[in-house]
Design brief:
Elements (H helix, E strand, L loop, with lengths): L5 E2 L6 E2 L2 H4 L38 H10 L12 H4 L16 E2 L5 E2 L17 E4 L35 E4 L11 H9 L9 H8 L5 H14 L1 H18 L9 H6 L7 H11 L28 E2 L29 H4 L7 E2 L21 H10 L49 H11 L26
Antiparallel strand pairs: 1-2, 3-4, 5-6, 7-8
Length: 467
């Protein structure tokens, strides 16, 4: 099985995709945040140069991957493709505001978690547990972790490495980091009975009659002709190559990118939001959603690839949540013995990129919130006004953190702003300040046109086919 990795041309670091596609333009020297805060007129006083993925024609393998990405015949129902959930017209995220997607062989099975975007995954490191990476894209080795009592390190927007002495989970794909490559990620939904609900036999049959069959076999070679499992892996590898090579998965074309380069200005409200985003006493968002160019000259991804337990409310729109004994505990459910071996991380889910976040309508791993206003309210008021988010028990008490068992609640973030406030204290952000941050988040939307609506060979689009 091949995996998709390449090496950074700047530091020689093993990362996903970044190095082999980096341009050779010079990298601007790093400068302190306070010196380079937006000027009163919204301009960037310290324009910078950073590496963007190189624009080049898709390789033949990636072209095959593109056809596979749109091919509904691969699914158990024959009506779902990768693009059905990851719509190119919506930055490869879900369309609509349903908390989870309905799939399966009959298109009526609820998925377990909200659909994440497929954009900006090209630099995702493999899953690991080790010292805080700071702004690196390279994962440390996995080391032993405490089964209980892990002490969480504080994180600050102005000092993202402050928790470096603490051991943190980071990297990997899906909300829980359970696989390490785009190739493996492509196979997850394909064979999940609640999602595309296919089988190895069905996929093999489709590969042997699809319009891209001869091209795939030409690359898979003699082994692909005789070994169905190998041919399936080559198909998944092709999907990964498509996601890695096609620029629409990582455009870096937002107004924020243009602002970094000195080619755009913030409005007064966006400028205020940006400063609040980076203020460790206020939004403190940049503690996890890193917004600066990396040390090897790559544009910010607005994530540190790490995992957090935030205590999102239980989403009763997901039918399996009606079963009291059911819990989704993120990282510690990613391995068979995880609730014991990774108990210190139960309830933690990956910090997603904020790029294109203003176009989304489903937030958190369980899709419990549907607007950025609701998300910001939760961040600021979770422990100040818990009645806004959590249900009341029959005795009238508020069931705070109702989606994580009590024995794992010590894993919750209660020390970093804005989660460091208690009842009776002043919120870290006012309503108007929250609106300003949302205005800034709007600058992270990619400006380039989306990928074509239909695959040229299969004629299929990203739309789900119910008929």
């Amino acid at each position: 099985m091949r995996t998709i990795r390449c090496v950074s041309a700047v530091l020689g670091l093993t990362v996903f995709g970044a190095g082999c596609e980096a341009q050779s333009s010079p990298v601007s020297p790093l400068v302190s945040q306070d010196v380079c805060d937006p000027a009163p007129d919204g301009r960037n006083p310290c324009p910078q140069i950073f590496h963007r993925p190189r624009q080049a024609p898709l390789s033949q393998m990636a072209q095959i991957g593109r056809m596979l990405f749109y091919d509904r015949a691969l699914s158990g129902s024959g009506k779902l493709s990768c693009a059905s959930c990851h719509d190119p017209a919506n930055h490869y995220g879900p369309t609509g505001d349903a908390s989870v997607f309905e799939g399966g062989a009959d298109l009526h099975r609820q998925g377990r978690r909200a659909i994440p975007t497929l954009t900006y995954l090209e630099r995702m490191p493999p899953f690991s547990i080790g010292p805080d990476l700071g702004d690196d894209d390279v994962a440390p080795r996995v080391i032993s972790v405490p089964s209980t009592g892990n002490r969480r390190g504080s994180k600050s927007a102005t000092d993202t490495a402050s928790s470096a002495a603490h051991i943190v989970p980071q990297g990997g794909f899906f909300w829980d980091g359970r696989v390490d490559t785009l190739q493996q990620q492509a196979g997850g939904p394909l064979f999940d009975r609640d999602e595309m609900a296919s089988t190895p036999e069905r996929v093999t049959a489709r590969l042997n009659m699809a319009p891209y069959r001869e091209a795939l076999l030409a690359l898979a070679g003699a082994r692909g002709e005789t070994n169905p499992a190998f041919l399936r892996e080559e198909a998944l590898f092709a999907i990964g190559r498509y996601e890695l090579e096609d620029r629409h998965f990582h455009e870096y074309s937002s107004r924020f990118d243009a602002w970094l380069e000195g080619k755009a200005r913030f409005t007064p409200l966006e400028r205020e939001g940006y400063l609040l985003f980076n203020d460790p006493r206020k939004g403190n968002c940049a503690a996890c959603h890193l917004d600066h160019i990396t040390r090897d000259g790559l544009p910010p991804l607005f994530t540190d690839h790490q995992y957090e337990a935030l205590g999102a409310p239980r989403n009763m729109a997901i039918s399996r949540n009606a079963v009291a004994s059911y819990d989704d505990l993120g990282v510690c459910d990613s391995r068979p013995d995880g609730r014991k071996a990774f108990a210190a991380y139960c309830g933690m889910f990956v910090t997603p990129t904020l790029r294109n976040v203003a176009t989304r309508h489903v937030f958190f791993h369980n899709g419990v919130f549907h607007t950025l206003e609701a998300v910001l309210d939760f961040y600021v008021l979770r422990d100040l006004q818990p009645e806004k988010f959590y249900p009341r028990a029959p005795d009238g008490n508020i069931e705070v953190y109702d989606d994580i068992p009590e024995k794992y609640r010590s894993n919750l973030d209660t020390i970093d702003a804005p989660f460091d406030r208690r009842r009776g204290e002043t919120p870290a952000l006012t309503e108007s300040e929250r609106r300003a941050i949302i205005a800034f988040l709007g600058t992270l939307t990619d400006a380039d046109a989306p990928a074509p609506a239909a695959d040229a060979v299969t004629g299929q689009t990203g739309k789900r086919q119910d008929g």
